[in-house]
Amino acid sequence: MLWLLEGIVWILRFFIGASVFSFFNVVICRLPKGESVIKGRSHCPGCGRLLTAWEMIPCISYFALRGRCRGCKEKIKARYVWMEALGGIFFLACILRFGPGPLGLISLPGLAAFLYLGILVMAAWIDWDTRIIYDRFSVGIVLLGIFSLKLFSEHTLPQRLLGCVLVAIPMLLLSLVIEGAFGGGDMKLMASSGFLLGAKGVAVAMFIGLMAGGIYCGIMLKRGKLTRKDAFAFGPFLAVGLGIAFFWGDALADWYLSLL
Ligand SMILES: [Zn+2]
Hints:
Structural class: mainly alpha
Strand content: under 5%
Bound molecules: zinc ion
Mean pLDDT: 91
Number of helices: 9
Low-confidence stretches: none
Helix content: 55-70%
């Protein structure tokens, strides 16, 4: 019986994460349009029909509706369900990495990690769509950094302050030499994340981001989908690096330093 209960607890946890990311989906859709993210109920973008509670259950509604609006039969974007599934998986990953907390839900470090991943996904997705990283995401990361000063005390204040400038300042200098090398939003994302992750973490994140962005560019250039003059959103690649660095940044940095 115990394994059954345990299973139910994990499924509930998955749906908590999925529900939070379902809300983040709303932010991704509405923020670039300048719409309020709290006011106005969810509606079908096709016909404008308001959604009932049954149509808003993360992941399940999409499959129950066979991916189409009940009113106008227009296809629902698959990215909604992907985003919700990602939220569920991230919530479980944060519990596994940082431990469950009160009521078996999630520990405070786990919650900080989950919120950080949420901010990264929102910033990356909007950057991909619009090539803008909103300042409010960087402000949110700084607030998380302050909130986590005691939670992640291994990241001391001097390390965090070094983290703010270690990557962001070289990015700024490079942008002065090569016009448009990095956007201001990219730099603010790395500066604020440096305050959360510390110097080691943000360095690892930049390394992974450059690798991932470089591989993507190489593939796109080869396929002829990008030319050398094209600019592309770098935020999503930085976000991947930052997410990985939150989980394993210090370990990866220590491993790399041990090789030198
Ligand atoms: Zn519709």
